Amino acid sequence: MDLKDKVGLVTGAGRRVGRAIALDLAAHGVSVAVHYRTSQSEAAAVVAEITGSGGKAQAFCANLEHVAEIEQLVGNVVEAFHRIDILINSASVFAPTPLETITEREWDVNLDTNLKAPFFLSKFAGAAMRKQGAGKIINIGDWAGIRPYKDYLPYSVSKSAMIGLTRALAKELAPEVQVNCIALGMVIPPEGYTKEEVERLVNRTLTKKMGSPNDVARAVVFFCETDFATGVVLPLEGGRLLV
Known about the structure:
By secondary structure, this protein is α/β, with parallel strands linked by helices.
């Protein structure tokens, strides 16, 4: 896919990895729909940075726990930009949930945001892409979907299911739409982690270094530009899975 003049929806695009993806797609000529839930000022800053550099962007608010808002979000993006070519499922929740204290609400929040939302976003956006004859969906996963984190059970389950969702959607939406997943390691320190905790995690990688949001953005661009990869899960975790 030639990215120039295409339209991409990036969820959770106001902060962290989503922000880097949105900015990099814009640098490649993509008009970016910047989704946010509560980070309004951050999303506005991303839009301002893109438009200030001559690109096109617009912010869209939606609570991805609710399917009606997901459907409206995709409809609003299509109405504003007249098409949708790329969907980046980046929005995610991540918080410790020890098994002994997990609540129903914690389970639902993890599965709704990290799994149900990407499915329904892909359903609605994928239908529009198929009508256009082409499209790309990239799910931002986690290596915890392959090797679960202790004390993050609902999160790990949601990311494991995202891998299955990626492969199932690749079949369902073929041949027009390609669906892939990037299984991240540490590219930004988790919020609240101390310097010592971050160093400990970095030392567990083979590379002995932390990745960056730009590493993720470059992988996203690869999956957007190639028309031959689908159903792929790309570990981007510094070799942590081999340790």
